[in-house]
Amino acid sequence: MKQILYVVFALFFSVMIFSCGGDKNYEIKGMIANPSLDGEYVYLQKIENDALQTVDSALVKDQRFKFTGIADSAVIREISFGNKGTGLAPVVFVLQQGHMEAYVDTFSTMTGTVDNDKLTEFQTQRNYLVSKIQKIMSEYQMEALKGPISDSITMVYQGQYEVAANEITNLSYNFALLNNTNVAGALVFLQSISSFTYQQVESILSDAGQTFLNVEGIEMIKKQVDLEKNVAVGKPFVEAIIPDTTGIKVSLSDYIGKGDWVLVDFWASWCTPCVKEFPYLKEAYNKYKDKGFKIIGISLDANREAWISAIKKNNLNWIQLSNLKGWDCPVAKDYAIQSIPMTILFNPQGFIQAKGLRQDMLLIEIQNAYDKK
């Protein structure tokens, strides 16, 4: 009788432990398709400071592994493998309370909770579209092996590729938009943001829930979007004061909004694509400088000698400014500069006319500006 009571008590106590705060417990049971990982470890990791940090590990036995723990809130995690895991896709998922099941193969999934079931469905659809792109590329390569491909044939394949790529973007956008209150939506948003337009990013963030916004990396993107709103086409210039090559501080308002077209060019001596833009800048400058056209170069260099040397070497005979702080340049931050070269064209009244003009598009836009004038 005492033994029976002890067993009942023990069972009751274990249930209480799991349920008292059991609403925060998680369990991940995993199966790996590749038996070569038996005896190896798999790793539960988080992204911290742009690097993966291991938070737990589990031994693989009979192609199975298990993680258990407490999830105070839903977070993005990854299950990855050692050197023997080559060819296996890491499991990127939402770690949250509940029982989850991971299946690891060349296409890995996590199921068992609402967020992860949604992700698995999304990833399956996306994987299908990716396979379509791979098929298109493979067929194009096979055609190339037969001999030269005509422009018309290339355009057909390019069109097919763009259709499939747009399908992936639309799938990702719609998922993030419909799930902008949960971590699953945040994960897809972060993975896909490079393919989204500014308007798509803004629409996803505009009414996003706090759970979505609290995911690491989202707040930085939101701040960037808010910055870009202030320097969108049609917005007035943002004042800045920055030294020239002699150290004299110059205000952008000394030139912008004074009745002339002004092009601000963000560049750096170490930026090869920037150097390739110089001939187009020179052509525009030489053609329209007598009509009042001005270029202001703002360098993201940190080394003064490299900056001055590049100006002389490339004969950049227009206004040159830099505070020599590299990517910490306050002006670059104020204008939401994420990559260079980046040009911003201001109309005579000081409002942003166009952004990101390069090569022939730069020449055409400036020619149109003076034709209209």
CATH topology of the largest domain: Glutaredoxin
Total number of β-strand segments? 15
Could you tell me the mean pLDDT?
Answer: 89
What is Rg? 28 Å
- The helix/strand class is alpha+beta
Topology:
Elements: H1 2-19, E1 25-32, E2 41-48, E3 51-59, E4 64-70, E5 75-81, E6 91-95, E7 98-104, E8 109-111, H2 114-146, H3 151-178, H4 183-192, H5 198-206, H6 210-213, H7 218-230, E9 241-243, E10 249-251, E11 262-267, H8 272-288, E12 294-299, H9 304-313, E13 319-321, H10 330-334, E14 342-346, E15 352-355, H11 359-372
Parallel strand pairs: 1-7, 11-12, 12-13
Antiparallel strand pairs: 1-4, 2-3, 2-5, 5-6, 7-8, 9-10, 11-14, 14-15
Helix pairs in contact: 2-3, 2-4, 3-4, 8-11
List its traits:
373 residues, alpha+beta, Immunoglobulin-like, Glutaredoxin, 3 domains, five-stranded mixed β-sheet, four-stranded mixed β-sheet, 15 strands, disordered N terminus
Could you give a quick summary of the protein structure above?
Helices cover 43% and strands 23% of the residues. By secondary structure, it is of the alpha+beta class.
Characterization of the model:
With 373 residues, this protein is α+β, with helices and mostly antiparallel strands. It has three domains: 17-111, Immunoglobulin-like (Sandwich); 115-230, no CATH class; 241-372, Glutaredoxin. Helices cover 43% and strands 23% of the residues. The chain is built from eleven helices and 15 strands. The protein has helices spanning 2-19, 114-146, 151-178, 183-192, 198-206, 210-213, 218-230, 272-288, 304-313, 330-334, 359-372, and strands at residues 25-32, 41-48, 51-59, 64-70, 75-81, 91-95, 98-104, 109-111, 241-243, 249-251, 262-267, 294-299, 319-321, 342-346, 352-355. The strands form four sheets. Strands 13-12-11-14-15 form a five-stranded mixed beta sheet, with helices on one face. Helix 2 (114-146) runs antiparallel to helix 3, helix 2 packs parallel to helix 4 (183-192) and helix 3 packs antiparallel against helix 4 (183-192). The protein is elongated. It starts with a helix and ends with a helix. Residues 1-22 have low confidence and may be disordered.
